[in-house]
Design a protein that fits this description.
Layout: E1 4-10, H1 16-31, E2 35-41, H2 53-60, H3 78-81, E3 84-87, H4 90-99, E4 107-110, H5 131-154
Parallel strand pairs: 1-2, 1-3, 3-4
Helix pairs in contact: 1-2, 1-5, 2-5
């Protein structure tokens, strides 16, 4: 098993969290960090479905193929399997914390808390917007993913 395991969580697991997962995988690989990454949603709307096409296209523009990703809902086992669980916004953070079993061992936090000066901010949901929203999300999750990878690399 990898030394670190990181789970990124949004509502439906088709836009933000798959992009965060892809960004973190890329950052960890670039830095040679042994880490496992996954993503999930708090809702079950898109279980088994691929990410939003705009999310796939945004990653592909950076040479990352996420067409094989499939949506899933956060599960009780995630709280002990993953070393870190990052929520993409406040509502999902509250839901993740609400569902946490007593024996949870994962560090649970808001994703942008890892970026100095961005603490307490949410990654906006681009689902109902344009392609530009996915670019904005990529920039934010990529910055956070790189910060996490650097932090884990120093641990």
């Amino acid at each position: 098993m990898a030394q670190y395991s990181v789970l990124f969580v949004c509502l439906g697991n088709i836009c933000r969290s798959p992009l965060a997962e892809a960004a973190f995988r890329s950052a960890a690989e670039d830095l040679g960090i042994d880490a496992h990454a996954d993503s999930a949603g708090t809702a079950d709307y898109h279980v088994g479905r691929p990410p939003d096409q705009r999310s796939i296209s945004t990653a592909e523009a950076r040479g990352i193929d996420k067409s094989h990703y499939r949506g899933r809902q956060i599960a009780e086992v995630d709280y002990t399997y993953f070393t870190h669980i990052f929520a993409l916004d406040h509502a999902n953070l509250k839901e993740i914390e609400r569902r946490a079993p007593i024996r949870a061992t994962a560090n649970i936090a808001l994703l942008l808390d890892v970026i100095e000066g961005r603490e307490g901010e949410a990654v906006p949901d681009p689902y109902y917007g344009s392609d530009e929203g996915f670019e904005l999300v990529w920039n934010e999750v990529n910055q956070a993913a790189r910060a996490i990878a650097l932090q884990l690399g120093r641990s």
